[in-house]
Design goal:
The chain is built from 10 helices and 13 strands. It has a 6-stranded mixed β-sheet with strand order 4-3-2-1-12-13, covered by helices on one side. Strands 6-7-9-10-11 form a 5-stranded mixed β-sheet, with helices on one face. It has a two-stranded antiparallel ribbon with strand order 5-8. By secondary structure, the chain is α/β, with parallel strands linked by helices. The protein has helices at about 25-35, 40-50, 80-90, 115-125, 140-150, 195, 200-205, 215-225, 240-250, 310-320; strands spanning about 55-60, 95-100, 130, 155, 160, 175-180, 180-190, 210, 230-235, 255-260, 275, 285-290, 295-300. It has one domain (about 5-335): Purple Acid Phosphatase, chain A, domain 2 (4-Layer Sandwich), CATH 3.60.21.10.
């Protein structure tokens, strides 16, 4: 795959002022147009292997990445490839929840139009819910709230509170039907001690209070459980916080889906399914379910053999081509559903 088809990794907003990295917008558009020719191989075989008729598919730490990455395992990732995988998973088993555990909106590919390509892409993919992490406020509270206002997916957080009003910035949970079961999805983020006192994090979270996760779960988990047959937790944070959750609620969740932590960093000996996935959109996690119980877990590679979805390509091309904001040139509803 040539350099014109991919972006360079890096450019994450961990420091002070953000900088735009990666290839120029014109090369990005050319790359998006070119990768539509790739053949679909592994995505098809992954779908055929699935046996469960219900599933949860989730991503985490997309970090605003739109294009495949040249330095992430040979060109892995890309929203157009992710769209192909999701479309085929829906075809093989229509009862599917599509979720994101957090840190979705901002990164090198989308800094020039902060977050808008991700929101539009997630709407096209029909994400059910997106957990808001503390990293989803890198341009401040108002930018993120404008970004998610009216989104087709449900932004979630049981822990992010408006400092002035004392109200949650998003719904603490949402209930969705999966097969013949009602599944409550709860969202929570913690602010790890390692970053809580960093000046740029304090600036990004100005006007926001991050409520302790355990306190929030003790309030909202009983309410979510009362409305559903089972509960899934989307958690963004550190391994210590995750360990505390699984110890306090060993049998209250179908699964805990994690952002901010990679699979090899998960605590051992959890009493319930705890699943993480790769960052930068290089993999997506697939959980097969039967009777609201996890029957299997796999990590689906978003790799070079997978064809780019034409509808997603068209959407991304419009965003990358529009100067000074990158909003869609036409309503998202006019784009064919993958």
């Amino acid at each position: 795959m040539g350099d014109s088809l991919v972006r360079k990794s890096g450019g994450h907003l961990e420091g002070g002022a953000p900088t735009v990295t990666g290839i120029a917008r014109s090369r990005a558009i050319a790359g998006l147009a070119a990768i539509v020719a790739l053949a679909c191989l592994s995505a098809c075989s992954l779908v055929r292997r699935g046996e469960s008729r219900q599933a949860i598919v989730f991503t985490a730490d997309t970090q605003g990445n739109v294009l495949p990455c040249s330095e992430c395992g040979g060109g892995q990732g890309g929203l157009a490839r992710r769209a192909t995988i999701v479309r085929r998973l829906r075809t093989s088993g229509p009862s599917l929840l599509l979720l994101d555990a957090g840190n979705a909106f901002f990164g090198g590919d989308s800094l020039g139009c902060p977050g808008w390509p991700i929101v539009a892409s997630y709407e096209l993919l029909h994400y059910d819910a997106v957990n808001l992490s503390y990293r989803d406020f890198r341009f401040g509270k108002q930018t993120t709230l404008r970004l998610i206002e009216g989104a087709a997916f449900v932004p979630l957080s049981a822990t992010l509170v408006d400092e002035r009003t004392g109200r949650l910035l998003a719904k603490p949970y949402v209930v969705r039907t999966l097969g013949n079961r009602r599944i409550a999805i709860v969202g929570a983020t913690e602010l790890p001690d390692a970053v809580a006192d960093l000046p740029h994090i304090k600036a990004q979270l100005a006007g926001i209070t991050v409520r302790p996760v355990m306190e929030a779960l003790r309030e909202w988990l009983p309410r979510a459980s009362a409305e559903a047959d089972a509960v899934v937790l989307l958690f963004y944070g550190a391994a210590g916080g995750l360990k505390a959750i699984t110890a306090a609620f060993p049998d209250r969740f179908v699964a805990v889906l994690v952002g901010g932590i990679r699979p090899d960093e998960l605590p051992a000996h959890a009493t319930l399914p705890v699943v993480a996935t790769s960052d930068e959109g290089r993999r997506i996690a697939h959980l097969g379910l039967a009777d609201a119980r996890v029957t299997g877990i796999e990590q689906i590679e978003v790799g070079t053999p997978i064809a780019a979805d034409p509808a997603m390509l068209a959407l991304l091309q419009r965003h990358l081509a529009v100067e000074g904001g990158c909003r869609p040139a036409s309503p998202i509803a006019n784009v064919p559903t993958p």
